[in-house]
Amino acid sequence: MDNALQPLTSPRWREVERKANELSELYSAPPIPALEIAERSGVDVVFANFGKASDKVAGFCDFAAAKLYVNAEDLTGRQTFTIAHELGHWLLHKHYFDKNPDDYDILPRFQSVDSNDAFEKEANFFAANLLVPKRLLKSVKGASVASLADAFAVSRTMMEYRLKNVR
Fold first, then answer.
1. Which phi and psi (to 5°) does residue 70 adopt?
2. 8 Å CB contact between 55 and 109
3. Contacts of 89 (CB under 8 A, 6+ apart)
4. How far apart are CA 128 and CA 85, in angstroms?
5. What are 133-145's pLDDT values in tens digits?
6. Residue ranges of the alpha helices (H) in 10-56?
7. Alpha-carbon gap, residue 73 to 78, rounded angstroms
8. Nearest of 7, 5, 162 to residue 84 by alpha carbon
9. Tens digits of per-residue pLDDT, 103-133?
10. Which of 49, 78, 81, 83 could form a disulfide with 34 if both were Cys (CB 3.0 to 4.6 A apart)?
11. Is the peptide bond before 108 cis (omega within 30 degrees of 0)?
């Protein structure tokens, strides 16, 4: 069985967090520029109109073409999360999905944060760590969820999740 399909262990979580932190370490204040980081990581980001699927799809990664497609109709905070999430797939799961393209799921606009899919959990964890690095979050203790979400340019839902799950 491929290592990415194993239950997430502490060493795997630390590796995902380390990769995200490595990419964001150049930035000393929020917001973290996910688009710039993605393009620096070797993928093109394309803002696309998904037509009839626009209300259902946030984005997806085209591994063969090295492109991240992002719903052009989404709000900026959602687009930023989609870029970070899909970049997580690109960096963490590319080798697996290159061999098993049918296993890759397009990111829906309304994904359950309690998804049991190990790939989705990793991509979400990567995105949270990239966009809201622990080192920057610790310096603003006591701020409201809304003000933190605004400062980091993420949704309130994402910020609430990050605050609950920061180690």
1. -125, 140
2. yes
3. 61, 97, 104, 119, 123
4. 8
5. 999 988 777 899 9
6. 10-24, 34-40
7. 10
8. 162
9. 887 766 666 555 677 888 899 999 999 999 9
10. 83
11. no
Instruction: Please state the length of the chain.
Output: 167
Distance CA 60, CA 13 (A): 23
Other CB atoms closer than 10 Å to residue 26's CB: what's the count? 11
Q: Residues with Cβ < 8 Å from 128, sequence gap 6 or more?
A: 158, 161, 162, 165
Alpha carbon of 107 to those of 18, 48, 57, 145, 151: distances in Å?
A: 23, 14, 6, 25, 25
Position 52, amino acid? K
Structure tokens at 124: 């979400």
Structural tokens at position 39: 């393009």
* Domains defined along the chain, listed by start: 3-165 (1.10.10.2910)
Q: Which two tokens stand for residue 71?
A: 């719903």
pTM of the model: 0.88
DSSP class of 53: G
Sheet holding 67-71, edge to edge: 44-48, 67-71, 57-62, 107-108
Q: Could you give the C-alpha distances from 127 to 9, 46, 50, 52, in angstroms and in order?
A: 18, 18, 22, 27
